[in-house]
Design goal:
With 246 residues, the chain is of the alpha/beta class. The chain is built from nine helices and seven strands, in the order E-H-E-H-E-H-E-H-H-E-H-E-H-E-H-H. 40% of the residues are buried.
């Protein structure tokens, strides 16, 4: 059965890699992002792969006043939304955030609070409807605060905790909530980050997200090696952890 997907941050390389799998199943999409040129490119790609209907909505997702309207517009167009996939965000510049609170506030707003705002009407609708899936990209950075990126990590920790609570709340309604925790991924967002052997290609991560969504999983680390890595990092005693150059 073809499905309808509402996608936030649709110009993300990871999101695009995920959506290509659904497009081959003749799924329809509403794509939301702030760059109209990139949105149109993604839409054309999905149509070429077999999607019968692709709507685009250009929006700055830090404008919270738009969030409920985007949801209502999508319902009016699609009728039913089977899956919501959220993958927008920024990779915070830790040094700037440490020196300037307004900068840190914007990062927390983008990577955490905007998603809470987006999901509030969606959660209530799906709970009443008794069906659907919410899949959100968080990060391994939220598993434990590290000096190199604790502003970004704090936002993702809050996001993962929020999704955990929503998952428990919606379980009795038959709504699946998937928390996605990628490690290092070679995308435009990490262009300035020094690469190492742990960096994965967005195509691999997108494929794993697609399979997790289809299987209605609760949470995944992607690539899966990060489940082991983060287990080790989380059990390091604090007295030793403070000494590590992480």
């Amino acid at each position: 059965m073809s499905e309808n997907l509402l996608v936030y941050g649709a110009s993300s390389a990871i999101i695009q890699a995920t959506l290509r799998h659904f497009a081959r199943e003749n799924c329809s999409f509403t794509l939301v992002a702030r760059n109209s040129t990139r949105l149109d490119s993604v839409a054309n790609d999905l149509k070429t792969l077999g999607s019968p209907k692709v709507d685009v909505i250009v929006a700055d997702l830090n404008n919270f006043d738009q969030h409920e309207g985007i949801w209502k517009k999508t319902l009016d167009s699609m009728g039913t939304v089977h899956r919501v996939l959220i993958g927008h965000g920024t990779l915070s510049q830790q040094g700037l955030c440490e020196k300037d609170y307004p900068t840190a506030e914007v990062e927390l707003k983008t990577n955490f609070l905007s998603i809470v705002s987006i999901l509030t009407p969606i959660i209530n609708h799906m709970e009443a409807d008794g069906m659907g899936q919410i899949a959100v990209i968080s990060s391994v950075a939220g598993d434990r605060g590290r000096q190199s990126n604790y502003i970004y990590g704090s936002a993702k920790a809050g996001l993962s905790a929020f999704l955990s609570g929503v998952r428990q709340r919606l379980a009795k309604s038959g709504v699946n909530v998937l928390t996605i925790k990628p490690g290092f991924v070679d995308t435009p967002m990490t262009h300035d980050v020094k690469k190492n052997p742990l960096f994965a290609k967005p195509e691999k991560v997108g494929q794993e997200i697609y399979f997790a969504m289809k299987k209605n999983k609760n949470s995944i680390y992607t690539p899966s090696i990060w489940a082991f890595i983060m287990t080790v990092i989380k059990v390091i005693p604090e007295r030793l952890f403070k000494l590590l150059p992480l």
